[in-house]
Structure formats: structure tokens, C-alpha cells
Write a sequence for this structure.
């Protein structure tokens, strides 16, 4: 694909035009992403599938994944610098953010402010939600768990 002078001018310069050409859509299928977690008791029983993370996909600026909980599963109280968004996909549960309990279920979105303490307990049928961070990589998120 060749750029014309008009294309370059429309993008504001050659570096912007090249940057626009380099950004390509990325598709992820949660059924193909490996299930991780479940081994470290500090996290609780949660498991997850990372869909977008710059160390695994040609993406940047956002991390996206699916958290999965068995019946009455947990993600223990913790904090981290970036804000986070949850969006309920299946099952139900309670997410406690800075001491206030919030129900999560399919179609429910929760915004968790940066450095807010939060933890999750799944209901008797389990829970699945989408999570997202404004970071390049999942490994850029430093989880700090609350001492029991």
C-alpha cells in the first residue's frame, strides 16, 4: 500500500501515517486462550484467560481477559495502580469495592477505581466476567493482596 502526499498530510505527517498503517485489528477467541491461575492461594480460586496483552498479542494500551470462578469461588481482596472494569458474562457473585458490596451478573458492568481494595465471591453457580486494564501487558499490573 503506497501513501500519497495527500494521505501523509491528512494524518499530520509521515510518522502518524506509518503508525496508522501499523495498527491492525486483532481477534481473540476465549475458547483458544489457555486457562491460567488457580495455583496460588494468595489469589483465591479464580482462574483467567488473557485475551489481549502486548506480550502475547499485537496490541497495546489495553489488557482484556475473562475471569472464571467455580461455585463460591474467590478472588481475594487486593489493590493495584490501574483502574479496572468488570463486565458480567455468566453466573453471579459479589464484588466488594472499598468495603461496599456490589452484585455482578450478566450485563452488569463495574468500574473499580485505581488503588481501590476489591475482592470477589462467586455465587453457587459460579461466575464469569470480562476484565480490562489500561496497560500494555497483564504483567504490568502489580497485585497487592490485603493481609488476612
Amino acid at each position: 500500500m503506497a501513501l500519497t502526499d495527500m494521505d501523509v498530510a491528512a494524518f499530520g505527517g509521515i510518522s502518524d501515517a506509518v503508525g496508522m498503517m501499523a495498527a491492525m485489528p486483532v481477534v481473540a477467541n476465549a475458547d483458544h486462550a489457555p486457562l491460567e491461575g488457580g495455583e496460588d492461594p494468595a489469589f483465591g480460586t479464580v482462574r483467567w484467560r488473557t485475551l489481549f496483552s502486548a506480550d502475547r498479542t499485537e496490541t497495546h494500551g489495553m489488557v482484556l481477559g475473562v475471569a472464571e470462578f467455580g461455585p463460591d469461588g474467590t478472588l481475594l481482596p487486593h489493590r493495584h495502580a490501574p483502574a479496572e472494569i468488570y463486565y458480567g458474562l455468566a453466573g453471579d457473585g459479589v464484588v466488594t469495592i472499598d468495603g461496599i458490596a456490589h452484585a455482578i451478573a450478566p450485563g452488569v458492568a463495574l468500574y473499580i477505581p485505581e488503588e481501590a481494595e476489591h475482592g470477589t465471591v462467586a455465587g453457587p453457580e459460579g461466575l464469569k466476567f470480562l476484565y480490562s486494564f489500561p496497560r500494555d501487558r497483564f504483567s504490568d499490573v502489580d497485585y497487592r493482596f490485603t493481609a488476612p
